[in-house]
Design brief:
Residues 406-441 are annotated as: Disordered. Keywords: Membrane, Transmembrane, Transmembrane helix. Residues 417-427 have a biased composition (Pro residues). The chain crosses the membrane at residues 25-49, 61-83, 95-118. With 441 residues, the protein is mainly α. Among the domains are: 127-334, Ferritin; 388-435. Helix content is 77%, strand content 0%. The protein has helices at residues 9-54, 60-87, 94-155, 157-177, 188-233, 238-261, 265-277, 289-321, 336-342, 348-379, 390-408, 429-435.
């Protein structure tokens, strides 16, 4: 068991370890401030670029405003992390540590809010705007294809109209030959059938004329989409391309609206309703009562068939009208900062870099705190006099010698004993206590 005035080997190793860490920290402190300043200035530069993208005016006042904001951000980041790096590692109580940790968390959130998102806008702003353009092109393409699908489905109603028209034409021919009512000729029944066949023929011709219009509108829309895709990846400032893209988007929106208007489904629906409801019954022209009775019975049958055919056409038109319409797509120009936020999931590396450049000093704060805790652990159970190094002890003896010389006065000066150098440890109780604890080799 060692004496009370001598350090144990464990305490000696802890003190040496503490001195070693302290030496490393002293060396690191020599450039830590400069490193923090470089990080703060770099963040301020990207913040300036981000703020500049948000300002509409490009005059001297806007440049000054952006510069003032970026300088404030740089100073704030440097001062904040300097406070944290000095104060947090020095805290000893848990309450003070938790308080400073909460302050560091709040400050980190403030830094992200005032700087990091602007840094991300500077790093990936142009790419984010291009992503917005590409997404808008996809939306417009989906809307164009949907409108064209509905228009083509409406054009397919021409076959239903032709089938109904052909059925009335065939009935009219049967009536002319006497196979329908039993009385050959072009009487009242024949004229009724021809009346409805002619109505359907006109509707069929009207639908047929829409084919060329639908095809032309779809081709024009595809041409506009091609130009919009080219603007998405074209070289040059994205702001200029956004203006041209906006003009093409307006043209494409007009084409989509035109395609929706070219759908003949509402026309077929109204024609089907009129087919059964607006019927001009011809005057019965039979020469006898039996002939007129036969004509009336045939007309009644024709009206029943007419109602059925009209209902079939109406259901076909309503099925086309019930198809989901294309979503209204409107291109809205956005700034680089808004684009980075809107498409943040696509630019995770840029966001990570923008946040890391602001919050990297937090890692240094934790490293310093751990190192300071290790130093305290190595010195906590050792008295202050036992922690003196040989150089510190020699300086203390020299100071004591100077004090004694001054107190003795000019006439009482005497030769002072020499300052002990690296001599045997018995010259000083403290040195003896220190050296006696060294392990034997």
């Amino acid at each position: 068991m060692q004496d009370d005035n001598r350090l144990s080997r464990t305490e000696m190793r802890g003190m040496r370890h503490a001195r070693e860490i302290e030496g490393h920290l002293n060396w690191l402190d020599s450039f830590t401030g400069a490193a923090l300043a470089v990080l703060a200035v770099a963040s301020g530069i990207y913040t300036y670029l981000g703020v500049s993208s948000l300002l509409d005016d490009t005059g001297a006042l806007s440049v000054f405003a952006a510069m003032a904001y970026s300088v404030a951000v740089s100073v704030g980041i440097f001062v904040f992390w300097s406070y944290m790096m000095r104060l947090l590692p020095a805290m000893r109580s848990m309450a003070s540590r938790l308080g400073l940790l909460a302050s560091m968390g709040l400050g980190s959130v403030a830094i992200i809010a005032m700087s990091s998102w602007l840094n991300a806008a500077a790093l990936a702003g142009a790419a984010a705007v291009e992503q917005h353009l590409a997404t808008t092109v996809q939306n417009y393409q989906a809307a164009l294809e949907r409108a064209n699908t509905i228009a083509i489905s409406a054009q397919s109603l021409e076959r239903d109209v032709a089938r109904v028209r052909q059925s009335f034409t065939d009935l009219a021919e049967q009536e002319a030959s006497g196979d329908l009512s039993g009385f050959a000729g072009q009487g009242a029944v024949f004229r009724l059938l021809r009346q409805k066949a002619d109505e359907l023929t006109g509707l069929e011709a009207q639908i047929s004329t829409q084919d060329a219009l639908v095809g032309a509108a779809f081709a024009e829309g595809n041409a506009i989409l091609s130009r919009m895709r080219a603007l998405t990846v074209a070289p040059g400032p994205v702001e200029t391309r956004s203006v041209q893209f906006s003009e093409e988007a307006v043209r494409l929106a007009n084409v989509i609206t035109r395609l929706r208007q070219l759908s003949v489904a509402p026309l077929v629906q109204r024609s089907a309703q009129d087919l059964a409801q607006s019927v001009i019954l011809p005057q019965l022209d039979g020469t006898s009562a039996d002939t007129r009775a036969g004509q009336q019975a045939t007309i009644d049958s024709v009206m029943t068939v007419l109602g059925q055919r009209a209902e079939t056409l109406q259901l076909a038109a309503e099925s086309v009208m019930a198809m989901q319409q294309p979503e209204d797509t409107v291109y809205t120009p956005i700034s680089t900062a808004d684009a980075v936020i809107l498409y943040a999931g696509n630019f995770v590396p840029s966001w990570a870099g923008a946040i890391a450049i602001d919050l990297l000093p937090a890692v240094l704060v934790f490293i310093t705190a751990i190192a300071q805790a290790a130093i305290r652990t190595g010195r906590d159970n050792i008295s202050a006099e036992d922690q003196l190094t040989l150089a510190e002890l020699r300086a203390a003896l020299q100071a004591l010698r100077d004090v004694e010389t001054v107190q003795a006065g000019p006439g009482k000066q005497h030769a002072a004993p020499p300052i002990p150098g690296p001599a045997p440890p018995k010259q000083s109780p403290t040195l003896s206590a220190i050296d006696s604890t060294r392990p034997a080799e």
